[in-house]
Amino acid sequence: MLQAILGLFSHVMATRQISTLTDHTERNRIGDLCLCWPVVFSSGFCLAYGACLLANHVGPELMRYFGPVLLLCLSGHALAAQQAKPLSAIDWLSQSVEAPLVAPAPAAKPKVDEPPVATGANVPQVTVTSLDGPSPDPVGLLSSAVTGLPRSLWAKSESATLISLMQSERVDTLPALHDLMMTLLLAEADPPIGANADGDLFLARVDKLLDLGALDPALELLEQVDTSSPNLFRRWFDVALLTGNENKACTQMGDIPNVAPTVSARIFCTARNGDWSAAALTLNTHRVLGDVTPEEEALLSRFLDPDLYEGEPVLPTPTRLSPLVFRMREAIGEALPTARLPNAFAHSDLRNTTGWKSQLEAAERLARIGAISENVLLGHYMARTPAASGGVWERVKAIQKLDAAIAAADPVDVAQRLDIAWDAMKDVKLEVPFAMLYAQKLTALPLTGNAAEIAFTLSLLSQDYESAAQTRDDGAFLTLLAEGVPAGAVDPIQTAVQAAFDGVEPSAELQALALNGQLGEAILEAIHTFNAGIAGDTSAITDALAFLRSIGLEDVARRAALQLLILERDV
């Protein structure tokens, strides 16, 4: 009740402020905007504006009758605003849309004990209510024929359990486990227990893709479903902002009636669509109503008229970063560096509008977590000739010289360049993308000594690890592991890996999940278990690898084991 009273009080204060505003504004214009263009003003503004007009025209006598009705409408609006559920998503998603206000259900009429006799021949009024559509949870980009996983992947697991597991999985893991996670996130599969029309599991999959910086797959996944619901639209909107498609995002926002944009998004899109005057009017109106915070007002004011603030100090770091805030900061010439921002923001540095060094650093960061392909990384490395030295420039030089030596098929030059490039790639943990680029080409050259050993290591990190191992008969642990028969372990990690390939049974918990049809949940648990093993629990390494092999994911198990031993990563 207290919240309702406070909400009503805020509307009364807004009414007084708007009464002054209307003295200086063409009244018909505002009325037309409220009726025909509701995206400009909030419903609270239009209700309060209507109250002002009524009070000015009907006089005090009639207001005694209309006043309580207006108060009821305004208090109802305040209550609905207080009761609207906030939209849940990962922390940095833009608050670009609001949850729609839900009208209370009408009270049931008491039953009348009388014969069902019609009083006329008129056609009764029919109310049409759309039923909830199907859950988007089954939607994916990879069919069972591609993934090798059954469509019942999630069917026997609780939706809440799967969401919790997805949210807890690490981003900085081994490439083999990252690829497995991506397969799960993009797989077509039957919905889990507890699935609903909101698609909670679908949203969790999209959020994890955004966490991983995989914007292109996230966008493709979102475009497979109807994004007119607020939760889905705000994710699509943010991906569009981060990939430089803000004009498309704003056009789409205006075309979807179910989406109620927040003040900041409304002003941003009104300006992007070319109506800067309406955007300024909207900001001024909501400033009067108190709908924008001082931080939002400062950013929006500079976005609408940056020349007015020329010479002013740079805005402080935002208290809550979002793609919308990020884009507006960029538009006013106060772009935020992406190095310490979430992975998804690094994509904005891949555009040609940023400096080459920023492009290179973003490409390395995204390639390291598998968010872009190794060929995209190579394209940035080869874009031009570096004019400086040190840091990323040394890596660019190393890759360019190695690439030229391989193209010339000069084994002596390749041997010299390969050692430098390999060390450079190890420094920034890009060994696997490097292997994907050059392992096959190096195998075709007659290399000897250290260069031959580096080339073989790269082959073990590539997709051709098994065929590379078959060319050697040295009995080394890594060679045997690549063929699936490791032997001769000499340290605890090798011993843990060898045990998994010697037929040790996986844990009863993982087996029980798989036998119960909860395969997807079991795989997520296995990924978590393997990461715990990397952190020091060697028995967890055995358990996870043994389970992956038991369900037919032999390739994943071998690649994960090879990467664990070669890369020597700590998770």
Describe the structure.
By secondary structure, this protein is mostly helical. The protein has 4 domains: 2-86, no CATH class; 151-331; 344-442, no CATH class; 477-567, no CATH class. Helix content is 59%, strand content 1%. The chain has helices spanning 2-22, 27-36, 43-83, 144-147, 159-168, 175-186, 200-211, 215-222, 230-242, 246-255, 263-272, 276-289, 294-304, 323-331, 356-368, 374-381, 392-407, 411-427, 431-443, 449-460, 465-469, 477-482, 492-501, 508-515, 519-534, 538-550, 554-567, and strands at 97-98, 260-261. A two-stranded antiparallel sheet has the order 1-2. The longest helix is centred in the first third of the chain and has 41 residues, at 43-83. It starts with a helix and ends with a helix.
